[in-house]
Structure formats: C-alpha cells, structure tokens
C-alpha cells in the first residue's frame, strides 16, 4: 500500500505500520492539495530523480517546492539524499502497489508566479511570490482522470481509496473551509462515477464531523483529531476494509505489541525476566502462524533490551 496526502494519511499509515502492513507513507512528505499529490505520483511514474536544479536556498535551508519541509536541510547534498532515498523506494514500489490511499486536505493551491507551478509547500517564502487559487471540482476531476488512467496502465489491479481530511483549515474562515471541503467531496464523487470498480471513498471527514463532536476527540488546537478520535476512525476503517481473519490477526498482534512495549518498574526482577521469556516465545509462535509478517525488528529490540538488562 502507498499513502499520499494530508496528515490524516500519516495517521492511518502509522496505524497500518503498527499492525505490520507493508506500506509507504508520503514519500514527498505531507501534501495538502489534490494537484500536489497528483504531481508527486506523476513524478514517481516518470522515475526522474531530483537534482540541484529542483532546490532553492531560503532561511538557511535548501528546499524543494514539491516536498514538505521535513526534507529540507542546511546542506544541499543532504536534502537531495533525503528526497531521492524516499523517491527511489517509492518508484520501485508503485508498480506493485495494489492500493493507494489518497487524502485531500484543501482545494486551495499556491502557484509560484515565476513559472505558475503549483507548490506543495511555500516554505515561508514571501507571499507576494505566489498566486492563491481555489480549484474547482472539474479541474481536480480532469487532472485525476488522466492520472488514474496512467496508473491503471501501470498496474490494472490497482485500487484507490480516497478520503477528505477532517482537519479544518480555520485560517480560511469557517465558510471558505466548508466550500473547500465540499469541492474535494464533489471531485472524489465524480472520480467514483468515472472509475466505479477502482475508486472507493472512506468517510473520515464525516466520522469526525458528525459522530465525534465532543471536545475529547480533538487536540489542543481543537482542529486536529485526538488520539482517541484516531483510534475510533481506525476501528471503523478496520471494520470497513479488513476481513475477519485480518481483524483477528490485528487483535492478536496488538496484544503482543503491548507486551513488547511494556516498561517494567523493576526490570531486574525474576518476574520480569519470566515475562520477557514468555513474550519472546509468544513472538516466535506468532511468526510461525503468520510467516508472511516480518518480525526481525521486534527480535532485535528484544535482544537489545535483554543485553541491557
């Protein structure tokens, strides 16, 4: 699986990773608007790596207009290395990915005046260097219709699952935020009609807006979902898309992962040593039942902790 888009893709991707799914999450970093996600996937299809010409220097860092700021660095070569390492991994995976999870965050885009390019991140450049434009449902649909056709030529088995980020862009104002989210919904609905066998929608936005209205389900900024909300949406995601067998494996792994992450009050005690031995036995039994799940990292962690003790 590959996940692209806003921070909601990161949250679901983290949950999938915790449950031992094979995923690639945001190889360009968090992307908020549909065109930036589209350009990222098109760049992966092209396979053309990033060069120094794709970078610019600002506020002491080298940036790419197609990447999130987490890839920026004071050293040009370091920034390129970060970008191209993730890029090469994603290029290799894309033709074999059977599911893309795409999260749209906003219909607003920033176009760099120098070449009219839609940017993924402005990196705190002066605002007068950009045009801010709100996309229409038709613009998003036309661009993505072409991309989906290319993806299905690359891999006819590929499925796409779209979501709209439940995080509100309050800086636009309540009404503008609602218009933006509505545009994203209309575009996804149009893509579902064009590709009914390949495109599906998961109502993450509706779950948070309509079912999780209590303050407990929001972070301190009252915009981002709390961990409780993420867990709730993950449960609904699991019920919607996972088979009973997969749900069973997930529950089994969750209990085992809790044991692996346990931090004892008295690590040198005989009781904890017995607990560690039992956990290692459970890990190997799990590996025998599900040989397709890689547990090398957990084995190494157990060995390192035992050596420290």
Q: Please, could you describe this protein's structure?
A:
It is a single chain. Helix 2 (34-46) runs parallel beside helix 4. The chain has helices at residues 7-18, 34-46, 76-93, 137-154, 174-194, 204-211, 227-241, 244-260, 270-289, 296-308; strands at residues 2-5, 24-25, 55-58, 61-64, 99-104, 108-112, 117-119, 130-134, 159-164, 199-201. The model has no long low-confidence stretch (mean pLDDT 93). It has 2 domains: 2-241, Rossmann fold (3-Layer(aba) Sandwich); 243-309, no CATH class. The strands form 3 sheets. Strands 2-1-5-9-10 form a 5-stranded parallel beta sheet. Strands 7-6-8 form a 3-stranded antiparallel beta sheet, with no helix packed on it. Strands 3-4 form a two-stranded antiparallel ribbon. It contains 10 helices and 10 strands. By secondary structure, it is of the alpha/beta class. Strand 6 and strand 7 form a beta hairpin.
Q: What is the CATH topology descriptor of the largest domain?
A: Rossmann fold
Strand order of the largest sheet: 2-1-5-9-10
Report the average pLDDT across residues: 93
Helix content: 40-55%
The H-and-E topology, N to C, reads as EHEHEEHEEEEHEHEHHHHH
Report the major sheet: 5 strands, parallel
- CATH class identity of the largest domain: Alpha Beta
Give the helix tally.
10
Radius of gyration: 22 Å
Global shape: globular
Name given to the CATH architecture of the largest domain = 3-Layer(aba) Sandwich
